Amino acid sequence: MTADVQHHPHRRRFRGRGYFQRVGPGLITGAADDDPSGIGTYSQVGAAFGFTLLWSTLVALPLAIAVQEATARLGLSSGQGLASLIRREFPKWVLYIAVVLVVSANSFNIGADLGSMAAATRLIIPVPHIVLVLLFTAGMASLEVFVPYHKYSRVLRWLCVSLLSYVLVLFIVKVQWADVVRGLLVPEFTFNKITIAALIALFGTTISPYLFFWQTSEEVEELREHGTTRLSPEHWGGHLRAMRGDVMAGMTSGVFVMFAIMVTSAATLGQAGITQIGTAEEAAMALEPLAGSAAKYLFAIGIVGTGLLAVPVLAGSTSYALAETFGWREGLSLKMSQAKAFYMVIVGSMLLGLGMNMAGLDPVRSLYWSAILNGLSAPPLIVMILILSRRKHVMGEHTSGRVSTTLIAVAAAVSSVLPLAYFFAK
Q1: Which residues form the signal peptide (predicted)?
Q2: Number of other CB atoms surrounding residue 348 within 10 Å
Q3: Which residues make beta-bridge pairs with 2?
């Protein structure tokens, strides 16, 4: 069914006042990309490696944009989510591998994010760790089940503004900008397991599997909210440009925050001799030049704000993948009574993350390992996205062009080569 409507009409006018009211799934995706796992990973890499791996931000940005733009275009062109397309276009065993990869990575990521949110909150409120994890789990599960995600996510986006504090620190501390520019433009790479693991984590938390499923399914869901499964031809041009602007803005903001956190951590933690971040207090120290004793408050707001935005995306991504695999009715715009299995997976995902914390998951170090797990899960999924985006019977007239195909292929190659290189490195 194709209706003569403008999908996501408020996203059509991308410039001007009311920006946060007009953007679509792209900005949410970009904001969720800087989840607690991302903050922990960027802080750890900046502290340990200084400015030497900053070049990875320039590599990651176009690759992340290309992959997310392709997933959005897949949803708009086919009217189906990523798992549905994989089920339709590939053998069943490929679908099951894809779903196992994303569910495993998402579950560990949720556990890590919940634990870090509790650890950050304990900097301000001396409440037992497990009690805070329970409260966050119950609160987010209730919000996602009973409140439309699109409504409360608009509020949560503003909490992510606290991440700009990492940018402000750059104007306060003494930063060797010549070294920053050198780190950006002159790639420095040591072939050892520590460096390669750091790159896997960086690319894994920036080009994350859960974002692939989320972006595609959210584009499809917004189509359905307007009573259609595909855009009418006369609306494709304007909306495609707006979608690309939305995705580009979201991923650019996410990678810019990545850059700021890495530089800030290198200039503060690294210079202070803290190269291994083991506690929330150590991670918060990066903001001390800006906020002094209030650094812990800024850090806590950033971690909790991004966690409140990202954990529902992680749980929703898992639920979309499973619902499309087994043919359940799905969608965050539906009520619990209309999509019970879909919402039960969301609740179950968060309970699994809760269980990991009750089993003693390290709340800070697990953030880094969740990013590595994402990096290991991404390669086969990116290859599938590349194949699907080139199939004319899936995409119609909107198959990936030469630039998109090249960038996605490079993303697949980079994400595949790094894990292989890890096993051969010393």
Answers
A1: none
A2: 16
A3: 230
User: What whole-number distance in Å separates Cα of residue 23 and Cα of residue 252?
Assistant: 14
Question: Looking at the domain assignment, is residue 275 inside a domain?
Answer: yes
Return the amino acid letter for 40: G
- Report whether 418 contacts 374 (CB < 8 A): no
pLDDT surpassing 60 at residue 376: yes
Contact 316, 32 (CB under 8 A): no
Residue type, 49: F
Per residue in 138-173, pLDDT (tens digit) is 999 998 888 876 676 666 667 667 778 888 888 888
Among 133, 109, 172, residue whose Cα is nearest residue 310: 109
Determine, yes or no, domain membership for 17.
Answer: no
CA distance 195 to 362: 22
**What Cα–Cα distance (Å) separates residue 391 from each residue in 78, 93, 302, 401?**
11, 20, 41, 11
- Domains in the chain: how many in total? 1
* 182 token code pair: 């050198």
Q: Which of 40, 370, 305, 47 is nearest to 157 (CA)?
A: 305
Q: 214 lies in which domain range?
A: 28-424
Helices (H), 186-268: 193-206, 209-225, 233-265
pTM, two decimals, is 0.88
Q: Look at residues 139, 49, 62, 172 and name the one whose alpha carbon lies nearest to residue 347.
A: 139
Please, what is the average pLDDT of the chain? 86
Asked whether 316 and 136 are in contact (CB, 8 A), the reply is no
CATH of the domain at 223: 1.20.1740.10
Does residue 215 lie within any of the structural domains? Answer: yes
168-191 burial, b if ≥16 CB within 10 A, otherwise e? ebbeeeebeeebbeebbeeeeeee
Residue 6 Rama label (left phi>0; alpha psi -120 to 50; beta): beta
The answer as to whether 8 is a domain residue is no
280: Cα within 13 Å, side-chain hemisphere: 27
* Residues in CB range of 172: below 8 A, 6 or more apart: 289, 290
